[in-house]
From TrEMBL:
Name the UniProt record assigns to this protein: BolA family member 3
Coiled coil segments of this chain: none
InterPro entries: BolA, BolA-like_sf, Mt_Fe-S_assembly_factor
Pfam families: BolA (PF01722)
Organism: Muntiacus muntjak (Barking deer)
Domain of life according to the entry: Eukaryota
SUPFAM superfamilies tied to this protein: BolA-like (SSF82657)
GO cellular component assignments: mitochondrial matrix
Homology family: Belongs to the BolA/IbaG family.
Gene3D superfamilies: BolA-like (3.30.300.90)
Amino acid sequence: MGSDLGQRTASAGRGSVDPAAAVPLLHGTRHWAQATAIKVTDISGGCGATYEIKIQSEEFKEKRIVQQHQMVNQVLKEKIKGMHRLWIFTSVPKY
C-alpha cells in the first residue's frame, strides 16, 4: 500500500505518539483515546481530497459497521466537508 505513487501514510497506535498529532486529518481530535491503532492514508495523489482511514478501537465493540462509521463521520464532520472521498475501515481489537 505505501509503495504506490501519490500515497502518504501516517499512523499511530498504543504506545506510540498521540494519533491526533501524527495524523493531520485527525489534528485537534481527541476522541479516539481508546484506539489501539489508527492509520490514515492520503490516496488523492497529494491534494488531500481523498483519504483512507483505519481505526481499531474498543469503542466499536458490539456496534454494527454502519454505527461505527457514523461515529467516525460525527467526529470528523467538519474536516470532511472539503473532501472528495473518505474510505472508512473500523475494527475491534482481538486479544
